Amino acid sequence: MVEIECCLSNSLPGIIIVGSGSRNVDEAKERIRGAFSSSGVAMPRKRITINLAPADTTKESSSLDLPIAIAILKASGSLPAETRTDELFIGELGLDGRVRPVRGIIGKLLSGREHGFRRFYIPQSNLQQARTVPDIELIPVAQLGQLVDHLTARASLDSTFTSAEPSTAYDTTLESIFQTSDEHTVTLGDIVGQTQAKRTLQIAAAGGHNLLLSGPPGSGKSMLAKALVTILPPLNREEMLEVTQLHSLSSNEYDRLITSRPVRAPHHSTSHAAVIGGGSKIRPGEISLAHRGVLFFDELPEFNRDTIEALRQPLEEKTVTITRARDTIEFPANFIFVATANPCPCGYYTANPAATPHSTGRTLCDCPPALISQYQRKLSGPLLDRIDLTVTVEPVDHAQLLKNVVESGNNRGEAYDTSIIRLVSLARNIQHKRFRGQTKLNSDMTNNEVKRYALLTPVASKLLNTAARNLQLSARSYIRCIKVARTIADLAGSDHIEPEHLTEALHYRPTEAHRA
User: Fold this and answer.
1) What is the DSSP letter of 378?
2) What DSSP string runs through 110-136?
3) What stretch of H or E contains 338?
4) Closest among 483, 490, 424, 493 to 449, alpha carbons compared
5) Within a domain: residue 393?
6) Domain final position from 350, 385, 404
7) Does residue 489 contact residue 421 with C-beta atoms inside 8 Å?
8) Is residue 284 located within the same domain as residue 156?
């Protein structure tokens, strides 16, 4: 929070801004002069000293223009000196007197509300995003002159009161099911075969688990990954608020409200800072822009190793901390990580030489063993330990590719998607009740919550301990396996984790056999 102080003194006219303001803050004095002149507001012909408190904190936002202008008007007597203690001004000024939208309005409003402010004067173009913040009064402003008339009681501006809406459970009605954005054209019903891969997508969507799809080129890995978002439930109000705020910080779309789950699919040549976040002015990266949605890495081993290893903290902590010499910022990064990978550089290596692909046109891998080993080592053990579900995607027989369309006109695909989405929504509703209305999934459980909600039967507990010894599971893999089994049990409508739920969860663990 920045408090603007203004002092007028009898000296040469001019504006001086002190208090650790950046260049764009210092340039505010020229924007304010232009806005005053265009709005017919008299600028005091005195020396104007503006202090931005606290002075030891760097200020970089152009949103300080409007409060600086109001401070000058109050100090000059153009506005009533008395003021409410619960109102706050936000906005950038144009030379023509317009109040321009600013970046990150939601975060500013949330911070102001936490500090006791309830009335906010904001740019009119920010209103759509701002209305997602509950329990505040918003007064949208289009022109500086309009605001002056409002504060001097010559005219009045309309205000909007926002209301709090509790997080609701995930709806399973058809109207809610098909709210998915039109840009996601690939659905599970469009994909032929791949029963096991579709099952892992269902588990990933229900519990928020990370997924790795491996297999030869052309087997449908990328299509499966892109179809994941179509079975996810729509964002609730709390999630919309978080996602819109993050996207507002990284773009100039000040009036856009994010209503569908984000899907981020950076190319493997994307820079480290663009994926993780950072830059000269710290901004959220792709992993934060995928918050509450899906982060898709196609051909994971082709990404820079430093970028791949930097995913460790976000996959574990659901946040990313970016530290620079002057600033340390923590961004949320709670996403479903979906990656695809070929078994070798050419893509046709198999641990079972007798296996013959149905439709690849190739049956042999011509990569040297050393090259295969080097390629597979790009994915470290600690990273694979954080991936809950690993599945091999096998090629589909050519004769099956158009079978559904020929036989049923693809009507069966829509029915299939509907049934999957219903199951995912029901499983998420179970978790919604389990975590007492929190926006939380099984993958987000702490160790204490795992102990409280796992509810393994004695036979399942014995099976898990035996498997952990035989498969040499790490402590992290052990806990993550229980989380996946909890999701499988939720999909089955079971209160307890049975042996069959645990067996399926163990089947998806990325063991040494999968890496080979």
Assistant:
1) T
2) HHHHHTT--EEEEEGGGHHHHTTS-S-
3) strand 336-341
4) 483
5) yes
6) 404
7) no
8) no
pLDDT single digits (tens) 293-319: 999 999 999 999 999 999 999 999 999
E strand residue ranges, 72-214: 87-89, 92-93, 99-100, 119-123, 137-141, 160-161, 211-214
Q: Which two tokens stand for residue 387?
A: 């991936």
Q: How far apart are CA 441 and CA 444, in angstroms?
A: 5
- 155 and 242 in a single domain? The answer is no
pLDDT band at 93 (very low <50, low <70, confident <90, very high): very high
Give the angle subtended at the CA of 171 by the CAs of 166 and 177, to the nearest 5°. 135
31-44 pLDDT per residue, tens: 999 999 999 999 99
321 touches 285 (CB < 8 A): no
Calculated CA dihedral for residues 369, 372, 373, 375, nearest 10 degrees: 160
Q: Is the dihedral of CA 64, 66, 68, 70 positive or negative?
A: negative
Out of 161, 189, 219, pick the residue that ends a domain. 161
- Judge whether 165 and 237 are in contact, CB under 8 Å: yes
CA gap 450, 496 in Å, rounded: 12
Residue 174 vs residue 171, higher pLDDT: 171
Averaged over 461-478, what is the pLDDT?
Answer: 93
Token duo for residue 287: 């992993």
Strands 14-18 and 47-53 turn out to be: parallel
Q: Quick: pLDDT tens for 197-227.
A: 999 999 999 999 999 999 888 888 888 998 9
Helix (H, G, I), strand (E, B) or coil at 89: strand
CATH number of the domain encompassing residue 257: 3.40.50
What count of other Cβ atoms lies within 10 Å of the Cβ of residue 264? 18
Determine the average pLDDT of the residues in 466-470: 93
Query: Where residue 194 falls among pLDDT bands split at 50, 70, 90?
Result: confident
Asked if residue 240 lies in contact with residue 259, where contact means CB atoms within 8 angstroms, the answer is yes
In 178-267, beta strands by DSSP E: 211-214, 263-264
Q: What is the DSSP string of 1-67?
A: --EEEEEEESSSSEEEEESSB-HHHHTHHHHHHHHHHHHTPPPPSSEEEEEEESTTS-B--GGGHHH
Q: How many domains does the chain have?
A: 2
CB atoms within 10 A of CB 185: 10
Ramachandran region, residue 85 (left: φ > 0; alpha: ψ -120 to 50; beta: rest)? alpha
Q: Which domain holds residue 7?
A: 3-161
Q: What is the CATH number of the domain that holds 64?
A: 3.30.230.10
